[in-house]
Structure formats: C-alpha cells, structure tokens
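Moderator note: this is an archived Q&A kept for reference. The question asked for a predicted structure of one protein chain; the sequence and the answer are reproduced below.
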Amino acid sequence: MIVEWVPCQPTSDFLPNKEFLKDKDGRHFHAGWYYRTHTDGTKTRRNWLTYSPSLNKIFCLDCILLGRKTAKAWVKDGFSHWKNMGIAVINHETTNAHIEASLKIKLRESVLPLIPSLEVNRKSSVALNREIVKQLIDITVFLGRHCLPLRGHRERWTDQLKGNFKDLVLLLSEHSPALASHVSTLKLKGRKDTSFISWDRQNLLIESVSEYISQFTNCSI
C-alpha cells in the first residue's frame, strides 16, 4: 500500500470561530503564507508548510519526512512566532537541509506512480512463466511415459528435426500463446534471454518430475 502525505493547510473558514488562534499579542497565522509570491507577482503553493490548528503552530512536512539536520522548530517543536513569520519561512525554505528534503520528496512523487505498474508487470511475468513451465512439464511427462528421448543430435532453430522435446514445444506453441511468446523471444534474442527449453532446463525438468514421482510412490506404499 502506498501512503500519500499531504500538508494540513486549512483556511479560517474551516476553523472554530472562523479564525486562526491568536497569541498573547493578538497576532495569528495567515492563510496567505501557504503561498510564496515571486517577483513577477505569480504565486506558488508551499506544499511543505503544514499548520496544526490544535497546536497553533506550523511545521515543515518535507523536513519531517526526509529532512536531515533540520532545526527542531520546523520538525518537532513547531514554529509560532507570527511577528517574524515572513522572514522565518523564507529563511527556512532556502536552507540546504530543506532544499535537500524537498528534492527527495519530488523524486519520490515522480517514482511512486510507477510502482503499481511495475508490480502489475511483475505479476504478469510470473503468471506467464508459470504457464510456460506447466506446459513444459506436460511435454516432459509425455515423452517419459512413451520412453522417448528428449534431445536430438542437432537442435538449432534452422534444423529440420530439433529433438522430440524442442519439436513438441514448437508444435504446442502453435496453439499456446504463452509458449509462442517464449519461442519468439528466444529466436529473436537467443542466449541473451532466459531459456526454459535449454539442455540445463530440460535436465531440471526431468529431475523435478522424477523427484515428484518418487515422492508420490513412497507415499502410496
């Protein structure tokens, strides 16, 4: 599960009595501080600035999450010196610690949307590989039951006869999308891609089937 952290930035309309709490000098937080005004008049939301209505203090969300060597006022104690608020905010957001934390946040925000799609691709790949191996096991069992050898003298893709195992793989690939995809990939990439039909993998299939039969036989006795 991916959790998204967002700043708490309420306006006075959502607060009790429709106003921010005042300090002993009558000063209070202003919602306008949620934005940074640039020299050309444009404004940018300070997504790092989070206000706590219960504490009547502000914190830096970026520094809380990924900050290092950040002043305690912005990550633990909270800042509430409203008289110096404007200067304090600018001073904080230009510190190396804050800039580093904000860059890390931006990087994670750009990467996180990719994670679900990567997980879907991984699961699809696992399901495809399982289907391929299942069909290769069926071929191995079939050849074993008929006492037929798996390999041929030559097994290149250009050879007319490639051995019983490989020939059956090609035959079934005409009716199996999973095998067809695997065979096409092997023909295209050759040894650069993982092969489920190499000699080593054939040996593993034979050993696995043999071990399963032995265990089944022992349990039946």
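Archived answer notes: Strands lie at 35-37, 43-45, 49-52, 57-60.
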